[in-house]
């Protein structure tokens, strides 16, 4: 067989990929499993007779199997997927074992409520995580850390019954592109995907890493779809103060391979060994000193896994940007662990060495603030490894890394001294106030005069980097009824980027006053709980554009955004109402009767006033009043969606709100107070029923909005 890479073989593989398949096949087969009904009490654990094959799966960490949701849903359309027990048959050396596993979660979560019919495609990402319920010894695959797959030759594995007996087999093809906004990978039609292979791994042959999970084949028989393993990052976020499932599993994955690499108890090939034997990529500009060796990469993953996880996705992105020299790929899903940051450092721009970028990143991680104190010496061990690894690279880099480490230590010590008197690892904020970190911004615009709307979801970096906006997703021509479903995935991605272990990020909803009645706080995105109960939700006036003035009396005043008016009443009002004490003032009613506030009256109110609206935001006189208080420079305003009973008195709302504002004392705590109120109302607290539908307009000048005009959709 020729050794020259790129020569095409008769079966469609190149010589390089044929050799890679030969090296990787035993490792992948050892970690791939057959999924079926749970074994009975009298089953022979060394027999394959455990009922029909539902599909395949593979071990990604000790005790954890990844497969497709539709595989664990086989034969049980009316059965709840999460918590369901399944059978797992796997190979352990020359023996075959069968154990029981329990489905811990499925993606997307809505599959528990709404599933497609038999033989229909399940919603992406169509993944399920199974936890093995008995301690067993087994192999695990190596998962990619790259955010995007490379369109090269791959192998896919799964359970087939070509000879009447279930066995794990592998076949080869090429990746042909992506689908579902990157959630799925298109497979070529070089070979056939059989039904029992669903849920099996897809392996990049050039780099020796699992990049996907087999999902479906084309009805014509050739090619199909796989789910990107990066979609594991969309696992449900953890409760505050806990480590999420994704981070726990990836930590276990990296430590498994790290331990295998260091162990000298046997001479079986590890994934790291095979990575070192894979044929080199032709024309690789980072070959040699430009890349970490397989052993160095495994060690770095293991040392990062020894550290506590980062406080948020934005922490990872900031360190990647500092190491890479440019902003990382903004497309979802967000990086959630230190290893995810490494995945954003492959093939850096300008021909810069990949190894150097990863060592800079590792240096910064060694002096970062973690979500909890690290195990004593873990950060120092990482730094010592970086310094030792740099010995084989360039002398200027060694000096640069040393200076970078010293500077990072000094800055961390400064942060720790500055944080005296508050939680060292928590975000800087006054008691009861909002965290100062990144927030999620949702913008919705009316599409001309039609009853459809364009939208955009972004991440606002926060006061420390005011004006920095990172796009998440956008869309056009959605009806109001469709918005909650259309925005479910983009908002979930934004929250993954911004939530920290201590606090759920603020959601800022920038819409024209006509849309202040949009019930965003009542939408359910993840976890089955309304957004307004999970996190603070505030309303914003859109920046930049000058919306048409509503019909009715002209409230007068300028059209610019209050946050942009320095040295005017807006700045003074904001500072005064934040410090408190605060007083409420009915803006659109008097004694329960509607009224249109005069401009002179509004501008003459004390700076600590919070105007309150109790009627429909898209109708007069409330609509005109909302524009008027905006023009008068009020940055904190209360609104309310109409109650189901149009004849109900607004007195309980005003009475309850007055007591709430008096108890709050200052406006800076109101976003979290409103979140707590929504939680009480959601929990059926009768003393909080008055707060149903209440909204808070929050024009924080430290969080300027982007002023780009929205793109209009197709006509």
Oligomer classification: single chain
Dominant shape = globular
Q: What class do helices, strands and sheet pairing give?
A: alpha+beta
Strand order of the largest sheet: 1-2-3-6-5-4
Distance between the termini: 58 Å
Characterization of the model:
By secondary structure, the protein is α+β, with helices and mostly antiparallel strands. It has a six-stranded antiparallel beta barrel with strand order 1-2-3-6-5-4. The chain has a six-stranded antiparallel barrel with strand order 7-8-9-12-11-10. Helix 8 (354-366) packs parallel to helix 10. The radius of gyration is 28 Å and the shape is globular. Mean pLDDT is 86; it is low at 1-12, 41-48, 422-430, 545-568 and 711-715.
Descriptive keywords:
alpha+beta; 6-stranded antiparallel barrel; 715 residues; disordered C terminus; globular; single chain; disordered N terminus; 18 helices
Quick summary:
With 715 residues, this protein is of the alpha+beta class.
Give the secondary structure arrangement, pairings included.
Layout: H1 15-31, E1 32-36, E2 53-61, E3 64-67, H2 69-72, E4 85-92, E5 95-107, E6 127-132, E7 153-160, E8 167-179, E9 184-192, E10 201-204, E11 209-217, E12 222-228, H3 245-262, H4 271-277, H5 294-305, H6 313-324, H7 338-343, H8 354-366, H9 378-389, H10 395-418, E13 439-446, E14 453-460, E15 469-478, H11 483-486, H12 488-498, E16 507-510, H13 531-534, E17 537-540, H14 569-579, E18 583-586, E19 589-590, E20 593-594, H15 599-604, E21 609-612, H16 622-631, E22 636-640, H17 651-664, H18 670-682, E23 694-698
Parallel strand pairs: 13-16, 16-17, 18-21
Antiparallel strand pairs: 1-2, 1-4, 2-3, 3-6, 4-5, 5-6, 7-8, 7-10, 8-9, 9-12, 10-11, 11-12, 13-14, 14-15, 19-20, 22-23
Helix pairs in contact: 3-5, 5-9, 6-8, 8-9, 8-10
């Amino acid at each position: 067989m020729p050794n020259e890479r790129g020569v095409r073989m008769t079966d469609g593989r190149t010589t390089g990929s044929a050799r890679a398949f030969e090296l990787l096949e035993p490792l992948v087969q050892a970690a791939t499993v057959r999924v079926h009904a749970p074994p009975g009490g009298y089953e022979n654990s060394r027999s394959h007779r455990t009922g029909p094959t539902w599909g395949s799966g593979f071990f990604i960490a000790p005790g954890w199997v990844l497969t497709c949701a539709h595989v664990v849903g086989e034969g049980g359309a009316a059965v709840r997927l999460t918590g369901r027990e399944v059978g797992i048959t796997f190979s352990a050396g020359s023996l075959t074992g069968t154990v029981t596993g329990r489905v811990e979660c499925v993606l997307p979560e809505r599959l528990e409520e709404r599933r497609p019919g038999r033989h229909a495609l399940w919603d992406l990402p169509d993944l399920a995580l199974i936890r093995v319920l008995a301690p067993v010894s087994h192999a695990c695959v190596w998962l990619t850390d790259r955010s995007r797959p490379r369109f090269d030759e791959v192998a896919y594995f799964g359970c087939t019954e070509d000879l009447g007996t279930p066995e794990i087999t592998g076949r080869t093809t090429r990746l042909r592109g992506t689908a579902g906004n990157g959630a799925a990978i298109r497979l070529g039609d070089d070979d056939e995907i059989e039904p029992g292979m669903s849920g099996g791994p897809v392996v990049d042959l050039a780099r020796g890493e699992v990049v996907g999970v087999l999902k479906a084949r084309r009805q014509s028989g050739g090619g199909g779809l796989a789910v990107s393993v990066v979609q594991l990052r969309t696992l449900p976020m953890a409760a505050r103060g806990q480590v999420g499932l994704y981070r726990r599993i990836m930590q276990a994955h990296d430590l498994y391979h790290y331990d295998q690499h260091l162990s000298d108890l046997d001479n079986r090939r590890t994934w790291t060994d095979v990575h070192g034997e894979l044929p080199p990529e032709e024309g690789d500009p980072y070959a040699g000193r430009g890349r970490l060796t397989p052993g160095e990469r495994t060690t770095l993953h293991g040392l990062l896994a020894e550290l506590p996880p980062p406080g948020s996705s934005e922490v990872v992105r900031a360190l990647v940007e500092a190491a890479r020299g440019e902003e990382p790929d903004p497309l979802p899903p967000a990086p959630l662990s230190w290893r995810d940051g490494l995945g954003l450092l492959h093939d850096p721009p300008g021909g810069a060495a990949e190894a150097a970028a990863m060592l800079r990143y590792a240096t910064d991680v060694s002096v970062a603030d973690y979500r909890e104190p690290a195990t004593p010496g873990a950060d120092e061990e990482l730094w010592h490894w970086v310094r030792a690894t740099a010995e084989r690279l360039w002398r200027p880099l060694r000096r640069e890394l040393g200076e970078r480490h010293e500077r990072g230590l000094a800055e961390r010590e400064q942060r720790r001294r500055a944080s005296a008197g508050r939680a060292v690892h928590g975000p800087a904020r006054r008691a009861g106030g909002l965290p100062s970190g990144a927030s999620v911004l949702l913008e919705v615009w009316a599409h001309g005069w039609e009853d459809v709307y364009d939208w955009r979801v972004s991440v606002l970096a926060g006061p420390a980097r005011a004006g920095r906006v990172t796009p998440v997703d956008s869309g056009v021509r959605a009806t109001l009824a469709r918005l909650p479903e259309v925005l479910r995935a983009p908002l979930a991605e934004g929250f993954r980027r911004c939530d920290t272990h201590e606090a759920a990020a603020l959601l800022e909803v920038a819409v024209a006053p006509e849309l202040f009645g949009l019930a965003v706080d009542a939408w359910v995105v993840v976890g089955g709980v309304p957004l307004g109960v999970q996190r603070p939700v505030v309303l914003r006036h859109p920046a930049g554009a000058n919306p048409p003035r509503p019909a009715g009396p002209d409230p007068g005043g300028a059209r610019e955004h209050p946050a942009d008016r320095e040295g005017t009443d807006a700045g003074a009002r904001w500072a005064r109402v934040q410090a408190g004490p605060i007083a409420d003032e009915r803006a659109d009613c008097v004694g329960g009767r509607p009224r249109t506030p005069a401009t002179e009256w509004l501008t003459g109110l004390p700076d600590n006033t919070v105007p309150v609206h109790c009627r429909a935001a898209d109708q007069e006189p409330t609509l005109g009043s909302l524009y008027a208080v905006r023009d008068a420079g009020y940055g904190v305003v209360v609104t309310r969606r109409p109650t189901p009973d149009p004849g109900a008195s607004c007195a309980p709302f005003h009475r309850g709100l007055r007591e709430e504002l008096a108890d709050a004392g200052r406006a800076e705590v109101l976003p979290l107070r409103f979140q707590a109120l929504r939680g009480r109302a959601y929990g059926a607290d009768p003393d909080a029923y008055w707060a149903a539908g209440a909204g808070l307009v929050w024009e924080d000048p430290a969080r300027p909005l982007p002023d780009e005009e929205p793109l209009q959709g197709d006509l």
